[in-house]
Amino acid sequence: MRRRAVDNPWVDHVWAPVMLLEQVPETAPWSTLASEDGTTLYYAGSANIDLFSAETANYRDNLMDGEPRVWVALRQQGGGAELELTKVTADPTEGEALFESGTEVIGTVPMPPEIAAWIAAFVDAFHVERVFQKRKRDRANLDRRRGPDRA
To answer: Domain coordinates of the chain in residue numbers?
Structure first.
């Protein structure tokens, strides 16, 4: 995570996810990794990326995008300045839904190649192409909703 000082009358800094580390470092969460000119990089902590077989089409689309991304969400704890890592996902649909909360720090970071390979293997193993089937209305149900007076 990057904490950057800003010249703004309402806030003095902004947070943004910067990168996803492939290995969990041997340091405590929220340890300072680097600091320079009003910008500080922190190790936010470890998280799992959960994969679900029903979402393989979303993972596949993310991987095929050319620049696969991972969505990272953090929340302020108890109104204080500290943040808590709440979600890391490779599902673009779930990631975009995170932006709707408005109360969390959300951002995307490039997906490391090792994680992309792991997700690609998951998609290869579990993806089942689903054919879209348009539903047809049942005429009997339409007539019942209109009532006996309407034809």
So the answer is: 2-129
Element (H, E) at 34: strand 31-36
Quick one: 24 exposed, middle or buried, by C-beta within 10 A (0-12, 13-18, 19+)? exposed
* CA separation for the pair 32, 46 (Å, rounded): 15
Residue 136, burial from CB neighbour count under 10 angstroms (0-12, 13-18, 19+): exposed
H-helix or E-strand containing 113? helix 113-126
Q: How far apart are CA 128 and CA 60, in angstroms?
A: 11
pTM: 0.80
CA 94 to chain centroid, in Å, comes to 6
- In this structure, which amino acid lies at residue 56? T
The upper half-sphere exposure of residue 53, i.e. CA atoms within 13 Å in the direction of its Cβ, equals 6
Q: 34-75: per-residue pLDDT in tens?
A: 999 999 999 999 999 999 999 999 999 999 988 999 999 998
